[in-house]
Amino acid sequence: QVQLVESGGGLVQPGGSLRLSCVASGFTSNTPAILWFRQAPGKEREDMSCISSNDITTYYADSVKGRFTISRGNSKNTVYLQMDFIELEDTAVYYCATGGTYGCYDLDAFDTWGQGTLVTVSS
After folding, report:
1. Band (76; pLDDT cuts 50, 70, 90)
2. Beta bridge partners of 118
3. Nearest-5° angle of CA 40, CA 113, CA 86?
4. 21-25, 27-31, 47-51: lowest mean pLDDT where?
5. Which of 1, 5, 98, 119 has its CA 20 to 30 A from that of 70?
């Protein structure tokens, strides 16, 4: 059974940094592409960043480009989201997701996610 567990959220001041972690398990072959998305209260899901199974392709939404960095750990089943220059608008619950695919070409297909981790930005 596929399982995704997010961690690393917390309270951070504007301009600060956080690193979120996503541990994926239950895959019978290589860990597929992983997407980070967020959902703020009263807002729709926002797909922020994705990394392909082979780590060659990454995707960033314009809202986080240049501030967030996605990477995969040496174990390949852990994906990180390094958040720098955090803004108030980054407050949300952050989720990692998979659709079982190896690329980041159809983000709507990423339909399995974990319980999320809350990031609160406040001065």
Report:
1. confident
2. 93
3. 40
4. 27-31
5. 1
